[in-house]
Amino acid sequence: MRGPDDDSPKEACGVFGIFAPGQPVAHMTYLGLYALQHRGQESAGMAVSDGEDVTVVKDMGLVSHVFDDRTLAPLVGDLAIGHTRYSTTGSSTWRNAQPVYRGIAGHQFALGHNGNLVNTGTLAEEAGMLPGTVASDSDLTAELIEQELEHGESTTLESALAAVLPRLSGAFSMVFMDEHQVIGVRDPNGFRPLALGKLEQGGWVLASESPAFDVVGADFVREIDPGEMVVIDGDGVRSSHPFPPDRLNPKLCVFEFVYFARPDTRLYGQSVHHARVRQGELLAEQAPVDADMVMGVPESGLPAAEGYARASGIPYGQGLVKNRYIGRTFIAPNQEMRALGVRMKLNPLKDNLQGKRVVVVDDSVVRGTTQKQLVKMLREAGVAEVHLRLTSPPIKWSCFYGIDTGERSELLAANLEIDQIRQYLNVDSLAFITLDRLIASTGTSGSGFCDACFTGDYPVDVPVTLSKGVLEGADRSGNGCEPTPVGNTVQGLFGSSVMPADEANEGRGAAPQTTTTKGSTDG
Questions:
Q1: I need a surface site. Which of 90, 267, 315, 388 has the fewest CB within 10 A?
Q2: What is the pTM of this model?
Q3: How many angstroms separate the Cα of 414 from the Cα of each of 7, 17, 398, 456, 492?
Q4: Model confidence over 149-188: pLDDT tens digits?
Q5: In this structure, what CATH number is given to the domain that contains residue 178?
Q6: How confident is the model at residue 272 (pLDDT cuts 50, 70, 90)?
Q7: Which stretch of DSSP H or E encloses residue 455?
Q8: Are residues 243 and 349 in the same domain?
Q9: Residue 233 phi, psi dihedral angles, 5° rounding
């Protein structure tokens, strides 16, 4: 459920890259970022090269706030990269806006990052960096590349990346550029999406999601493979694989199909919109109920609600009006900003709801605070019964691969059984889609997805303690990365959890607070 105080998982960032000599690449990057705005709303930026210099413009705010005709006019060149950010490593400040830029003797480059590195502590120590030297894992990556160019054997950005990338562990879909090239990289697991498109008038585009191609007049070519590096320059496109073959293990985040990706995106060759409709259909088969109306929570709950209504035969109706001027404010970076209230974002249509038994379809429950508020609103609007259906399984484990789920101690499903969650949310019935049905909705094999937030099965070794601000000097001592069994369920890794809300604690003894914090992540 979406609102300014929304506690759902937060997507990290959107990245865009373009090589198109003779075309207005800055304006095209602006359009591409606009199509990726849903992936990050804290800051936006782009870097443009005219063949001699790389110019970076970035600021806090939405794409439309950062860029206008005045700021775009001086940005003339043949290639560019762009970025929209939600902070998951490093605080929400201008310093952490992207692209990250470095200029050293004979070299200029910039990068944009969607994902999270889980070995930042080790990398920073190996590079001799003190706390505060770099502010995020993206900044750390730029520092490693700079060191390689200055002190290593590499003489080009491409060769420096070939040396640095195998040292990185975690989730990273990245775009890079220097004066003459645009480069796209996807980690060996492909946790975050990245795709290649071809412009109708010549040139190439990289983007987190395929709708960014449509808006600039490019045709989708293919997804970048896990572990692949694509270099685009005047000679065309060439591909290489800088990672050892034994690290290749495709694990796209399944939440892209549930919530993060735009409905008009295609992942693994499948329509995200169709997958969400199918999730609703499968939920109706799994958890039927007698009701008068099916309604979805805007926006991601709407296709699934359509599917639930179709499969169940219960009429579909609109129960909530969304304030479209609030934006996707669930990615506000902290609880203080989220606490403005769900009422700013959604308002019930009382005439459609009074006296009805309503099936409410949404994507997930994390802490449950937003759902609790929304159910209260529906009750106040006169709803007779509320039956909540979720298109993801219970989220029981923190994500370390580029999504800010929060600490495990905050996760409702890590603390309560399903019926206890139902009571806490004050709904008449509650059902989460099963993992096998969620995978089936995508039309692809379950082996190609990361489901760690549901199962605790982490495909890549994860840190035991690693905080969001660790590279800025906060909680530096906790920046260890102690290996856990790859591919195995890490039951007990994070210790006991406390209840995520005072109401859930009433009459119950809270378990000891875990010292584990969320993995350091960046857009």
A1: 315
A2: 0.85
A3: 15, 39, 10, 11, 11
A4: 999 999 999 999 999 999 999 999 999 999 999 999 999 9
A5: 3.60.20.10
A6: very high
A7: helix 452-455
A8: no
A9: -150, -165
